[in-house]
Model the fold of this input.
Amino acid sequence: MNFGRHSQIYESEFGLFIDALKRAHPELEEQQRQARAIWWDRPPLSPPEIDRAQSVEVKLKPYSYYD
Done:
């Protein structure tokens, strides 16, 4: 089936913007990978670290509706 000019693959303005940004700044993807490694890609906690995290207690004040 041929739908004429509508058979082209649609790409949103945002997608076009991101593509242009990546072409203008090729180092951007590597910076994103480095930032992800800092904040998200972490090794699992060791058993002593788990025990320490579970033993910490922070005393919370009861919630008051009116101050």
The helical segments are 13-24, 28-39, 47-55. Residues 10-40 form one domain. The chain has a mean pLDDT of 84.
